[in-house]
Known about the structure:
There is one protein chain. This protein has about 170 residues and is mainly α. The protein has one domain (about 25-165). The protein contains 4 helices and no strands. The chain has helices at about 25-35, 40-50, 65-125, 130-165. The longest helix has about 60 residues, at about 65-125. It is elongated.
Amino acid sequence: MPKKRRTSPRLRVVPPQAPTPPTFEALVMQAETAYRAHDWDTMGRVMEQLGGYPETKRVEAGADIQKAYFALASWYWREQAEEYRDELHDAGLKSLSIYGATLDASERVLEAMIWEVSHRCGDWAGAPEPTTHEVCTWFLTKIREAMQDALGEAEARFRAARDATIPTGTSEAD
Protein backbone atom coordinates (compact mmCIF):
# COMPACT_ATOMS: atom_id res chain seq x y z
CA MET A 1 0.00 0.00 0.00
CA PRO A 2 1.42 3.33 -0.99
CA LYS A 3 2.06 5.76 1.76
CA LYS A 4 -0.02 8.84 1.74
CA ARG A 5 1.87 12.00 1.61
CA ARG A 6 1.08 14.31 4.33
CA THR A 7 0.50 17.84 3.12
CA SER A 8 0.58 20.86 5.30
CA PRO A 9 -2.49 23.01 5.36
CA ARG A 10 -2.34 25.84 2.89
CA LEU A 11 -2.09 29.25 4.33
CA ARG A 12 -4.29 31.84 2.84
CA VAL A 13 -2.49 35.13 2.37
CA VAL A 14 -4.62 38.07 3.31
CA PRO A 15 -3.33 41.39 2.06
CA PRO A 16 -3.01 44.05 4.71
CA GLN A 17 -5.81 46.53 4.82
CA ALA A 18 -5.10 49.89 3.31
CA PRO A 19 -4.75 52.59 5.93
CA THR A 20 -7.87 54.62 6.38
CA PRO A 21 -7.56 58.10 4.97
CA PRO A 22 -7.36 60.89 7.50
CA THR A 23 -10.57 62.65 8.36
CA PHE A 24 -11.40 66.09 7.05
CA GLU A 25 -11.01 67.50 10.55
CA ALA A 26 -7.58 65.88 11.03
CA LEU A 27 -6.33 67.35 7.75
CA VAL A 28 -7.65 70.80 8.64
CA MET A 29 -5.75 70.58 11.94
CA GLN A 30 -2.58 69.58 10.04
CA ALA A 31 -3.08 72.53 7.72
CA GLU A 32 -3.50 74.87 10.68
CA THR A 33 -0.29 73.56 12.27
CA ALA A 34 1.60 73.97 9.01
CA TYR A 35 0.23 77.49 8.55
CA ARG A 36 1.31 78.54 12.04
CA ALA A 37 4.79 77.12 11.36
CA HIS A 38 4.95 78.83 7.93
CA ASP A 39 5.63 75.39 6.41
CA TRP A 40 4.24 76.14 2.96
CA ASP A 41 5.29 72.81 1.42
CA THR A 42 3.32 70.83 3.99
CA MET A 43 0.47 73.30 3.78
CA GLY A 44 0.32 72.88 0.00
CA ARG A 45 0.36 69.09 0.26
CA VAL A 46 -2.43 69.10 2.87
CA MET A 47 -4.51 71.61 0.90
CA GLU A 48 -4.18 69.36 -2.15
CA GLN A 49 -5.45 66.39 -0.11
CA LEU A 50 -8.31 68.45 1.28
CA GLY A 51 -9.44 69.35 -2.23
CA GLY A 52 -10.86 65.85 -2.68
CA TYR A 53 -13.19 66.02 0.32
CA PRO A 54 -16.84 66.92 -0.24
CA GLU A 55 -16.73 69.31 2.71
CA THR A 56 -14.65 71.69 0.57
CA LYS A 57 -17.35 71.89 -2.09
CA ARG A 58 -20.30 73.06 0.00
CA VAL A 59 -20.78 74.90 3.26
CA GLU A 60 -23.03 73.48 5.93
CA ALA A 61 -24.67 75.73 8.48
CA GLY A 62 -22.76 75.84 11.76
CA ALA A 63 -19.78 73.79 10.50
CA ASP A 64 -16.88 75.47 12.30
CA ILE A 65 -14.33 73.09 10.83
CA GLN A 66 -15.39 74.13 7.31
CA LYS A 67 -15.06 77.78 8.25
CA ALA A 68 -11.57 77.02 9.53
CA TYR A 69 -10.76 75.24 6.25
CA PHE A 70 -11.94 78.14 4.10
CA ALA A 71 -10.01 80.64 6.24
CA LEU A 72 -6.83 78.55 6.01
CA ALA A 73 -7.31 78.11 2.27
CA SER A 74 -7.67 81.86 1.72
CA TRP A 75 -4.58 82.60 3.85
CA TYR A 76 -2.58 79.95 2.04
CA TRP A 77 -3.51 81.20 -1.44
CA ARG A 78 -2.89 84.81 -0.40
CA GLU A 79 0.59 83.76 0.75
CA GLN A 80 1.19 81.95 -2.55
CA ALA A 81 0.04 84.97 -4.54
CA GLU A 82 2.40 87.26 -2.60
CA GLU A 83 5.29 84.86 -3.21
CA TYR A 84 4.57 84.75 -6.95
CA ARG A 85 4.25 88.54 -7.06
CA ASP A 86 7.63 88.92 -5.33
CA GLU A 87 9.25 86.47 -7.77
CA LEU A 88 7.83 88.41 -10.73
CA HIS A 89 8.98 91.70 -9.21
CA ASP A 90 12.50 90.31 -8.72
CA ALA A 91 12.56 88.99 -12.28
CA GLY A 92 11.39 92.37 -13.58
CA LEU A 93 14.07 94.21 -11.61
CA LYS A 94 16.70 91.82 -12.86
CA SER A 95 15.71 92.23 -16.51
CA LEU A 96 15.57 96.04 -16.18
CA SER A 97 18.95 96.04 -14.48
CA ILE A 98 20.51 93.89 -17.20
CA TYR A 99 18.89 95.97 -19.97
CA GLY A 100 20.17 99.20 -18.43
CA ALA A 101 23.63 97.74 -17.96
CA THR A 102 23.66 96.61 -21.58
CA LEU A 103 22.75 100.08 -22.79
CA ASP A 104 25.40 101.70 -20.58
CA ALA A 105 28.03 99.23 -21.77
CA SER A 106 27.09 99.77 -25.39
CA GLU A 107 27.45 103.51 -25.02
CA ARG A 108 30.84 103.20 -23.31
CA VAL A 109 32.14 100.73 -25.86
CA LEU A 110 31.03 102.78 -28.86
CA GLU A 111 32.59 105.92 -27.45
CA ALA A 112 35.86 104.10 -26.70
CA MET A 113 35.90 102.45 -30.11
CA ILE A 114 35.32 105.69 -32.00
CA TRP A 115 38.07 107.35 -30.00
CA GLU A 116 40.48 104.47 -30.61
CA VAL A 117 39.72 104.20 -34.34
CA SER A 118 40.24 107.92 -34.82
CA HIS A 119 43.67 107.55 -33.20
CA ARG A 120 44.55 104.41 -35.13
CA CYS A 121 43.51 105.82 -38.49
CA GLY A 122 45.94 108.65 -38.94
CA ASP A 123 46.00 110.77 -35.80
CA TRP A 124 49.09 109.00 -34.53
CA ALA A 125 52.10 110.24 -36.40
CA GLY A 126 53.87 107.41 -38.19
CA ALA A 127 51.41 104.72 -37.05
CA PRO A 128 50.48 102.18 -39.75
CA GLU A 129 46.89 102.28 -41.00
CA PRO A 130 44.88 99.28 -39.66
CA THR A 131 43.04 97.04 -42.09
CA THR A 132 39.25 96.79 -42.00
CA HIS A 133 39.55 93.24 -40.68
CA GLU A 134 41.78 94.41 -37.79
CA VAL A 135 39.37 97.19 -36.87
CA CYS A 136 36.33 94.86 -36.97
CA THR A 137 38.10 92.19 -34.91
CA TRP A 138 39.14 94.79 -32.40
CA PHE A 139 35.54 96.16 -32.26
CA LEU A 140 34.08 92.72 -31.63
CA THR A 141 36.63 91.95 -28.91
CA LYS A 142 35.93 95.22 -27.12
CA ILE A 143 32.15 94.72 -27.38
CA ARG A 144 32.33 91.21 -25.89
CA GLU A 145 34.56 92.36 -23.04
CA ALA A 146 32.33 95.33 -22.21
CA MET A 147 29.12 93.27 -22.33
CA GLN A 148 30.55 90.61 -20.01
CA ASP A 149 31.72 93.30 -17.59
CA ALA A 150 28.34 95.06 -17.73
CA LEU A 151 26.37 91.87 -17.12
CA GLY A 152 28.59 90.99 -14.17
CA GLU A 153 28.07 94.47 -12.70
CA ALA A 154 24.30 94.23 -13.26
CA GLU A 155 24.15 90.86 -11.51
CA ALA A 156 26.10 92.25 -8.56
CA ARG A 157 23.83 95.33 -8.31
CA PHE A 158 20.73 93.13 -8.54
CA ARG A 159 21.96 90.81 -5.77
CA ALA A 160 22.83 93.78 -3.57
CA ALA A 161 19.38 95.34 -4.13
CA ARG A 162 17.63 92.02 -3.47
CA ASP A 163 19.66 91.36 -0.31
CA ALA A 164 18.90 94.87 0.94
CA THR A 165 15.13 94.18 0.66
CA ILE A 166 15.25 90.93 2.71
CA PRO A 167 14.59 91.79 6.36
CA THR A 168 17.26 90.80 8.87
CA GLY A 169 16.62 87.56 10.73
CA THR A 170 14.79 85.85 7.88
CA SER A 171 15.92 83.90 4.89
CA GLU A 172 14.79 83.75 1.29
CA ALA A 173 13.06 80.41 1.95
CA ASP A 174 10.56 81.96 4.38
